[in-house]
């Protein structure tokens, strides 16, 4: 008896060069992720007064990250829709060009305001790059190979985390701060050439009519929501009108978006996707992981450099374990899923992330540095067993022709979760730090108290200006920061513990209809087309 097998969905000419295409997409992903990991190392230098840096304040530093995030997250969903409609290759190329131009302008910025503006330009370009890479992967790989390809795609994030801080540290030590952005330009140029030659175009063959109202509501809702989150974190007060008004506007716009999408006969987003328990649980887990991770990532660089006194380069080296673990295990996560199932794999991965956050509670100013190395490796191992499986689950639960929108939703939840993490956990960090150091700040002249209480670096700066009289601020400031870090790490552990429960109770043992390891038929030669 013979068993009928479905014909291959990917043309032979594209199938033969699929790994070269993946390498090109990884290069595009690297440059987007690399930039943010480099910037984390460069923040302390950018805060230094000119000519060494830009004299950026704590708020300027936050907005140099947030301006990118605001534009990037606000446009992700729309960029995914446009890629599905007009062509994912076109979206990818356009995004890379804009990202490269934004990088060049950021490198030449002469003030914090300019840097914030040009980072927004980079975010605009990145919004078109990120969803296109994953959507193209879904269209050039057969289902049986998609978990492996997505694992490599996720592992590329680990590679960027690894080389970003080290590259940034080397650049900061030997060149001016703008070199951390200028390094993107040659990578973008190489990627553009490779994409033009190798990557096939693909799009939704039946996109239907445009939904301008839905697109507009999604942009307004996401931008307003994330702006309110960021502003609340910056003010450390979500009851301030500058925070709750945009939050309310964002939530109302997103509610109107959902109602509109349910009623229109040509929706930009099929809200029925969220009735799929696998899809809903997976995107929620993604959001929780990045909520916790981004908040801790923000204080990590200051713990390493300001509390422990390591250089920018060494700060990069100490981030290697987290990245190496992702690079090693993410491409192999599919093997664990094959044996134990997605539910057990993701729940165990979230448990490892939770354990890593609890490990931060053991850190103080004199903890052996190998403890931080172990914590990073455990966290990276956990992430490597969460992100690839849930990404496969998200993409496999949606129609293939909607790969761009699915990828955009995956990244939107990640960015919203990350923004919430930076804002909420950042506000907690600032509040706890200021409370802990307040008795020392009361001894300062009135004009210096508010400034010294902004952050650890601000306290150090005021102490330096006071000379011998400020020396007594240093150790109490470190102690207060470490206490604040412990509070944030404990909250992060609680968030990821919720993720363990969600993964265990809501994710299935196997992904229904997901990539199967069924044998592939002998593929006939077919014309080169990927319009699906």
TrEMBL record:
Name of this protein: MFS transporter
Keyword RNA-binding: no
Source domain of life: Bacteria
SUPFAM superfamilies associated with the record: MFS general substrate transporter (SSF103473)
Keyword set includes Cell membrane: yes
Transmembrane stretches, start-end: 19-43, 63-83, 92-110, 116-138, 150-170, 176-198, 210-230, 242-259, 279-304, 310-330, 342-363, 369-395, 416-433, 481-507
Segments forming domain Major facilitator superfamily (MFS) profile: 21-511
Subcellular localization: Cell membrane
Bilayer topology: Multi-pass membrane protein
């Amino acid at each position: 008896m013979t068993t009928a097998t479905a014909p291959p969905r990917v043309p032979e000419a594209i199938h033969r060069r699929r790994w070269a295409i993946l390498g090109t997409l990884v290069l595009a992903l690297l440059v987007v992720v690399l930039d943010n990991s480099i910037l984390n190392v460069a923040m302390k230098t950018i805060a230094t007064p000119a000519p060494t840096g830009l004299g950026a304040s704590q708020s300027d530093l936050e907005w140099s990250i947030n301006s990118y995030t605001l534009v990037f997250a606000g446009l992700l969903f729309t960029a995914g829709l446009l890629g599905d409609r007009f062509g994912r290759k076109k979206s990818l190329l356009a995004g890379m060009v804009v990202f490269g131009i934004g990088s060049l302008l950021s490198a030449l910025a002469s003030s914090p305001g300019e840097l914030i503006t040009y980072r927004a330009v980079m975010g605009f370009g990145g919004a078109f790059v990120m969803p296109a890479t994953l959507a193209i992967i879904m269209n050039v790989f057969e289902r049986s190979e998609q978990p492996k390809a997505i694992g490599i795609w996720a592992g590329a994030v680990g590679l960027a985390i690894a080389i970003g801080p080290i590259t940034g540290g080397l650049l900061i030590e030997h060149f001016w701060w703008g070199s951390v952005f200028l390094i993107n330009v040659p990578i973008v140029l190489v990627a553009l050439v490779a994409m033009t030659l190798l990557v096939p175009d693909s799009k939704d063959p039946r996109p239907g009519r445009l939904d301008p109202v839905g697109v507009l509501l999604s942009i307004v809702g996401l931008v307003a929501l994330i702006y309110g989150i960021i502003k609340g974190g910056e003010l450390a007060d979500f009851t301030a009108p500058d925070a709750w008004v945009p939050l309310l506007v964002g939530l109302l716009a997103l509610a109107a978006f959902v109602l509109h999408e349910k009623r229109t006969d040509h929706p930009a987003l099929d809200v029925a996707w969220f009735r799929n328990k696998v899809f809903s649980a997976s995107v929620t887990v993604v959001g929780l992981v990045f909520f916790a991770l981004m908040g801790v990532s923000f204080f990590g660089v200051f713990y390493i450099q300001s509390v422990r006194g390591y250089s920018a380069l060494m700060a990069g080296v100490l981030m290697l374990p987290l990245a190496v673990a992702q690079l090693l295990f993410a491409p192999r996560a599919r093997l664990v899923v094959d044996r134990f199932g997605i539910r057990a794999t993701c729940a165990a991965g979230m448990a490892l992330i939770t354990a890593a956050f609890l490990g931060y509670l053991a850190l103080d100013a004199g903890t052996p540095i190998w403890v931080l190395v172990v914590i990073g490796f455990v966290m990276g191992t956990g992430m490597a067993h969460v992100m690839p499986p849930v990404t496969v689950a998200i993409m496999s639960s949606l129609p293939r022709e909607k790969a761009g929108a699915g990828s955009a939703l995956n990244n939107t939840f990640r960015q919203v979760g990350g923004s919430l993490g930076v804002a909420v956990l950042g506000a907690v960090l600032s509040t706890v730090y200021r409370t802990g150091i307040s008795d020392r700040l009361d001894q300062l002249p009135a004009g210096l108290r508010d400034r010294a209480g902004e952050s650890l670096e601000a306290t150090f700066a005021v102490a330096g200006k006071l000379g011998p009289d400020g020396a007594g601020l240093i150790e109490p400031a470190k102690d207060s920061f470490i206490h604040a870090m412990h509070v944030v790490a404990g909250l992060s552990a609680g968030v990821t513990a919720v993720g363990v429960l969600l993964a265990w109770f809501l994710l299935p043992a196997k992904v229904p209809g997901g990539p199967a390891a069924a044998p592939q038929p002998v593929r006939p030669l077919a014309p080169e087309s990927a319009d699906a």
